[in-house]
Amino acid sequence: MATTRPSSRAGEVGPDIYAEWRASTLGAITELLEQELVLDLAGPLFGKSVLDVGCGDGTLAAEFHRKRASFVVGCDPDPRMITKATARTIAEPDAMRYLLGRAEHLPFGDQSFDVVTAVTVLCFLEQRSRAVEEMARVLKPGGRLVIGGLGRFSTWAASRRIRAWLGNEFWRRARFTTAHELRTAAIAAGLHVDRLRGAVYYPHCALAARTMKPLDPLLGSVTTFGAAFIAMLATRKA
Length: 238
What we know:
The chain is α/β, with parallel strands linked by helices. 39% of the residues lie in helices and 21% in strands. It is built from 10 helices and 7 strands. Residues 4-11 have low confidence and may be disordered.
């Protein structure tokens, strides 16, 4: 999970790129702010079944497990990510599971999970509405869905568009979003939107991240404009 995921030469992101990003000062601060926001919106996880769609290398799913979720499942279309994520489950093989799967066609039955998360997933999909409908389908009545997307009106989005224009295939595929678009997609899928928050208001600079980190949650509670990361909590009616 990351607001900025540096692309490889092939325009793809592998586990090593995730690790490199988190090892940087900017990456560590950005990742922490995003994760704290997602966990806040997800609410108490004790005894809950959780699905992380587009789980990547399993970092967020592992955090759900540490929050005492009863069972955590992660799915991702990239076999390399599943291999890396599965390596994390050696100590707790019965409490976590990772498998290949796409957001548009989730390999789970109706009403299977208490909580579903999808962080920086919709921005790289063509069928975004279909994916949200699928996530709503696998939610139990009263279940919570947390979606995190890349904000359209931010300095990060502007720099990514420039990189796309210059030929970066990874960012050329990205589709930035707004709070309104996330809300509309959730409502269309039959969900109730409870909260929308932003994070990462500083520019792509480690010094700016360190300086603005304490103010970031406050800005996120006021507006999503200017946020590089926008997260939504929506619930399925009981």
